Amino acid sequence: MKCVDDFRLKFGTREYVPIIIGGMGVDISTADLSLEAARLGGIGHISDAMVPTVSDRRYDTKYVRDKLKLYKYNVANSDKSSVRFDLGLLAEATETHVRRTMERKRGDGLIFINCMEKLTMNSPRDTLRVRLRSAMDAGIEGITLAAGLHLGSFALIEDHPRFNDVKLGIIVSSLRALQLFLRKSARTNRLPDYVVVEGPLAGGHLGFGMDWAKYDLRTIVAEIAAWLRAEHLDIPLIAAGGVFTGSDAVSFLETDAAAVQVATRFTVAEECGLPADVQQHYFAASEEDIEVNTISPTGYPMRMLKSSPAIGDGIRPNCEAFGYLLDANGNCAYITAYNRELALHPQAKKLKVMDKTCLCTHMRNFECWTCGHYTYRLKDTTLRNPDGSYQILSAEHIFKDYQYSKDNKIALPTQA
Ligand SMILES: Cc1cc2nc3c(=O)[nH]c(=O)nc-3n(C[C@H](O)[C@H](O)[C@H](O)COP(=O)(O)O)c2cc1C
Fold first, then answer.
1. Does domain 4-274+386-404 bear CATH number 3.30.70.20?
2. Which end of the chain is less enclosed by CB atoms within 10 A, N or C?
3. What is the pTM of this model?
4. CB-based contacts of 69, cutoff 8 Å, min separation 6
5. Cα angle at 364 between 360 and 365, to 5 degrees?
6. Rounded distance from Cα 206 to ligand 1 centre (Å)
7. In this predicted structure, what is the pLDDT of residue 150?
8. Can you give the pLDDT at residue 148?
9. Can you give the pLDDT at residue 149?
10. Nearest-angstrom CA–CA distance, 412 and 397
11. To 10 degrees, the CA torsion angle through 277, 414, 265, 295?
């Protein structure tokens, strides 16, 4: 019986352990977590979601405070169209985050950044362009284009000196999405270096509707692989979503996948950005505690723990400080939902907004507990502490379990 270590992901002449830790915004996949993946010979992701906010927490900058100061006059106004990001400061924040991470890199693996198109930031094209280019300027080794179709993203960077040097990948959940992307980016004469095929059991936003349960990762990977073969396109496929054990990974590596992208197992790693008390909720979750809902203002279904404080919370939209999901006209589905409830209950001390959430605020505060379908199995991956809590794992332990385990076994840690 084989283990993941019997396989390698190849980019040109370079080989990597075929384990990619997926991007988890907002700073759930921290620099520390990504650096561990790279040190161990695999690939780690940082995320470019809300980087100015992350930079304030990590590098003692003051982007959020300064932006709020600038737009304070608008806080009570439901029209957010005047709230803009300063592109120079956005570039600075991205460069800081990427450069500081790359400076600490050890080992033979790679550090990529997960870039979400749905962070439209009241100026979708300009802000995306700045985020992509400044990550490249700062030495990122790969960019995974996520959450959105990214039909014009390659064109935004095609004149960048590192366009052919940085690994570029895209996340898709269907053959159709991949075909559309390839058609639209054909003009740049640049194929993606890898394609992450993300199935319906993943964490974060899903590339499916609420009928996600009808779909199956293995079928989608096989369909895309067959089409690529027929088109004589040699692009490594990365299977993602519900790959919980080393044996799960091997079953994909033995067929059509060149690597797997995993995340849920790492949400309970020491190096993960989730606070320790939140990690205990992930461990303790049962299958009934997890749902896919539509409260994300992005319009994509999202999987999360039902106990997430973000669900139902009717806080005032925080766009003057954050505003990452404002569309090109300064709208966000949460603002609409909030204003509707405010009009219905003008005297209420605390509003409840059930259908949407202020995702920026709640992701910033780790109050939207997004998770993968198999989160309820995390308790089987560790031991209990004497006080009954679950023992947090090291990223190295989880990574090596994926790399070396066989027979669907999961290695438990040594008792702390
Ligand atoms: C907590 C959490 C947050 C996530 N956030 C993002 C994100 O910001 N962007 C993204 O493209 N994918 C995100 N994902 C998806 C992962 O990168 C990954 O592809 C997927 O979850 C892998 O499946 P698994 O969690 O079953 O291992 C997230 C997943 C989790 C568990």
1. no
2. N
3. 0.98
4. none
5. 120
6. 9
7. 81
8. 80
9. 78
10. 9
11. -10
Q: At what angle do helices 31-39 and 87-103 cross, to 10 degrees?
A: 40
Distances (CA, A) of 87 to 84, 210, 232: 9, 36, 40
Going by alpha carbons, the residue nearest to atom 16 of ligand 1 is 22
Give the mean pLDDT per block of 10 residues along the chain (416 residues).
97 97 97 98 98 96 98 95 97 98 98 95 96 98 90 95 98 96 94 98 97 98 98 98 98 98 98 98 98 97 98 97 96 97 95 98 98 98 97 98 97 91
Which residue, chain included where needed, has tokens 């079953």? 251
**Is residue 384 within 8 Å of 391, Cβ to Cβ?**
yes
At residue 208, the pLDDT reads 97
Ligand 1 mean position to 88 CA, how many Å? 29
Ligand 1 atom closest to Cα of residue 274: 1
221 CB contacts (<8 Å, ≥6 apart)?
A: 197, 199, 237, 239, 252, 255, 256, 257
Predicted pLDDT of residue 73: 97
Q: Which residue has the tokens 């999901």?
A: 325
The dihedral sign for the CA sequence 133, 138, 140, 141: positive
What's the Cα-to-Cα distance from 380 to each of 92, 222, 266, 370, 407, rounded to whole Å?
42, 30, 14, 19, 15
> For the chain, how many residues are written?
416
**Cα 20 to ligand 1 centroid, rounded to whole Å:** 11
What angle separates helix 87-103 from helix 124-137, to the nearest 10 degrees?
30
Which atom from ligand 1 is nearest to the alpha carbon of 370?
Answer: 1
Domain boundaries, the chain: 4-274+386-404
How far apart CA 239 and CA 260 sit, in angstroms, is 5
Indicate the top mutation candidate among 4, 24, 34 to test ligand 1's pocket, ranked by most ligand atoms within 8 A of CB: 24
What is d(CA 121, CA 87) in angstroms, rounded to the nearest whole number? Answer: 11
| Residue 234: closest CA among 258, 262, 260 | 258
